[in-house]
Amino acid sequence: MIGKVEQYLLDKIKEDGCIHITLVDPDKSSGHDCAVIAHEAENGGTAAIMVGGSTLAASEDLDVAVQRINEKVDIPVILFPNGPTGISKYADAIWFMSLLNSQNTYYIIDAHVISAPLIKRYGLEAIPMGYIIAGEGCVAGYIGQARLISYRHPELAVGYSLAAEGLGMRFVYLEAGSGAKEPIPPKMVGAVKKHLGIPLIVGGGIRSPEAAAAASGAGADAIVTGTLVEEEAQVKDTISAIVQAMKRP
Fold first, then answer.
1. What CA dihedral angle connects 96, 99, 100 and 105, to 10 degrees?
2. Sequence-separated (6 or more) residues with CB below 8 Å from residue 161
3. d(CA 179, CA 225)
4. Residue pair 127/95 in contact by the 8 Å Cβ criterion
5. Please, what's the b/e burial string for 10-20 (b: 16 or more CB within 10 A of its CB; e: otherwise)?
6. Integer Cα distance of 2 and 170 in angstroms
7. Above 80 in pLDDT, residue 204?
8. What is the pTM of this model?
9. Alpha-carbon span 90 to 68, nearest angstrom
10. Cα of 130 vs its chain's centroid, Å
11. pLDDT digits 0-9 by tens, 132-153
């Protein structure tokens, strides 16, 4: 059953063609800083805020960050969990995501078995998503023990994406890893989108309007940036430039 946040995302994608989502990491920024970043990002045109990180360990820090963000923004706050510690009852929704190319079943299904009862108890809207890490993978790839997909083999990303769709997942997130030197190549994005019937999210290594425009032009339905707002003081202007570049003719 599609919930309110998921329907909002689908409607925004239909309306705008490609939407921007800002990722904030409480492990790298304080709850106050996360809220300020989220507020500025909303003013810059981002469609939603994702909260989480690969190494987040303290659920208390997450709760504080989500509460403070919710006080500052009107757009949805969606959890991007690294496991059970990445769950907060104060969020609007959670990506119920399976790292499909992990070597460890924990990241494919075991963490979900542990987390599902808590998500149910909190009444969080769970949005099923296939998560795929390609390229260098960075910390996300290391922590998730991913069998990284080389940019030379977009057909593997296509296969994993179609598997996600076939299993009933309603989004696919193709990720290069936070801080990646190179984003997912347009060739890989285009190959996946050509065959995929559900929304495609692309993230990792996107630090410029040009990189965002390339991903959007290749067919991405949503683009995530995170490291960019950690490093950039002018969050609103930076996000605004990226949002403008993503627009399709």
1. -100
2. 130, 132, 172, 174, 192, 195, 196, 200
3. 10
4. yes
5. bebbeebebbb
6. 9
7. yes
8. 0.94
9. 10
10. 11
11. 999 998 989 999 999 999 999 9
